[in-house]
Amino acid sequence: MANNDQTKPELRTRSSLKEIQGIPLLEPIVTNWDRVEKFKAFPEDLLIATYPKAGTTWTQEIVDLILNHGDADQARRAPTHVRMPFLEMTAPNPTLSGITQLEKMGPPRVIKTHLPIQLVPKTFWDAGCKIIYVARNAKDNVVSYFHFDRMNLVQPEPGPWPQYLHKFMKGQLGWGSWYEHVKGYWRERENKPILYLFFEDMKKDPAKEIRRISEFLGQNTSDQLIDNIMQMTTFAAMRENPMANYSTIPETIFDRQASEFLRKGEVGDWKNHFSSQENKVFEEHYNTMMADVDIPFCFSV
Ligand code: PPS
Question: Which residues does residue 66 pair with via DSSP β-bridges, in sequence order?
């Protein structure tokens, strides 16, 4: 359809959600689910798994720099989603279709996924692939997701904030329940090769978390290199880096007038969004949902 309003990008049709094993996913992902199920992992592949908006891109950049020994030019060889494809994502544009990209790549591949642990294709476990899981506190996570859904014209319409928060609590957003997502990987972290990280720890002491990632990947990274990688992956540095800030995604998909992809990158921004009543209701529900685990989430630093 022609776009008569020159001030706004032409709106793409937002996807609806369909379910796989009770988990809501974008409809094109569900339509092409057999490709995800049949995917073949190499033992050298690394999976970076997160609930959406938990710090995926940041972790991807750190990993790519570690594997490339801090070579900034090498890490700028292509945008994030081309260097480290998004496994389950399917789109008409082949560079945005994870499996189409991955099938052209040899090992070792760094792969992004938002799938909850029970939907991770069995091939990753059979091949013994390492997995880095990043979790972010629920309140900041839902705020970040809300702004992302405002700007990503492929995601379902977020609607007003109060209803959006309700949907998050009910597990009705894309990729399902945050609560079950973080718990699923937490419970398996000692049985499987999973490094479980927290966004808030990365903010508090990035050098320490970069070192943990490096050791998990079996890399011998010097203190100097850790420091360089830390400088190259600050929020400010990544926001300026066109190969790490998703600025190559067209405005017809990412409406940057609505929000930036690298929006604030803070811990505690939820305080600017939750009313005191919302916070009270959320915490009661949170305590019930998280009563069966003791995951040390931190809501401010
Ligand atoms: S996605 O679409 O699920 O892959 O998004 P994801 O990358 O997981 O999450 C995006 C949020 O992470 C913030 N971000 C950072 N914070 C601090 N430092 C660095 N380097 C960094 N890079 C990305 C990004 O700003 C999003 O959070 P919000 O709170 O919306 O700003």
Answer: none
**Residues in the chain with pLDDT values less than 50:** 1-10
- Look up residue 271 and give its DSSP letter: G
Residues, the chain, total?
301
pLDDT at residue number 301: 87
Q: Is the pTM of this model over 0.90?
A: yes
Q: What is the torsional sign of CA 179, 236, 208, 131?
A: positive
The predicted structure's pLDDT at residue 7: 44
Told to judge if 81 belongs to the known catalytic residues of this protein, a careful annotator would answer no
Contact of 297 with 187, CB cutoff 8 Å: no
Does 54 contact ligand 1 (Cβ within 6 A)?
yes
Q: Give the sheet arrangement for strand 110-113, strand by strand.
A: 110-113, 46-50, 130-135, 194-198
Place of tokens 């642990």: 117
Counting from 1 in the atom list of ligand 1, the atom nearest the Cα of 56 is 8
Residue nearest (by alpha carbon) to ligand 1 atom 4: 56
Q: Which residues, 6 or more positions from 63, have their beta carbon under 8 angstroms from its beta carbon?
A: 46, 48, 84, 110, 132, 213, 217
Domains of the chain: 40-289 (3.40.50.300)
235 within 8 A of 265, measured Cβ to Cβ: yes
With both helix axes pointing from N to C terminus, report the angle between 56-67 and 206-216 in degrees, rounded to the nearest 10.
60
